[in-house]
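Please think about what follows:
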Amino acid sequence: MGGLRAASPSVAGSRAVAGVGSDYAAQRLAMACVLASEAATVLAVMRRNVRWADVRYGGAGDDEHLDHPLVAGLKALRRRAAAWGHGRWTGVEPLLYLRPFLDVVRSDETGAPITGAALSSLHKILTLDLVGPGAPGAAEAMAAVVDAVTACRFEVIDPASEEAVLARVLQVLLACVRSRAALALANRHVCTIVNTCFRVVQQAGTKGELLQRVSRQTMQEVIRTVFARLQDIDVTALSDEQMEVSEWQVLIKSGKPKVASFLPSREKTRGTKRVL
């Protein structure tokens, strides 16, 4: 029994610190791998698209400036992610790795499959909580996500692809209010999320049954999440972003929620641009 000796407090403490450090390094590397993988996925979808078949996807070199801006942004993200995997992740601004996907979502040069892939990447980033509430510029990043997704532009090829993109839009908006960085959302962005979901629910009546069910369920989850966090709101705090009392009275008397005008009410035909 004399061979067994309890570890000293200093040794145990150093081992605990080393364990925490290794866990943080593994988490940091995993986050970088997720970003690099999502950027590669969107690039792969773009390569399969006929419209983007002739776009240059060359590697790094002196002529890299010839790449399309959307392609260049995604390729730059892959290179940066490799560096972030060995550096300090908490000091990285979320917009640096969100902007390439947001540019694809906002672009009117991409079709529904490419836009859907970019939205799927945003959904994964938000679901995995890569954007923390304490990250530098978290409020600007979350605002940019909401603005880009609600201003989503893509070419309507067929009804099925349109419904798939709309379902992705709902998923990203729901992830925004569920993520840890949701506390950084301003009041107007929360209202924009609710308005967008409500409008999609209205338009889903003329779409497939799957989109109708997804839109209604997403609307319910968004409202449930928002009201679940009311207890964390300081009702005595006044903000310039709050809606005026008179405007709320008009909404209550009319019995209709205020719906944003960024969703078109008319039906879209094949080959036209769909703008949220």
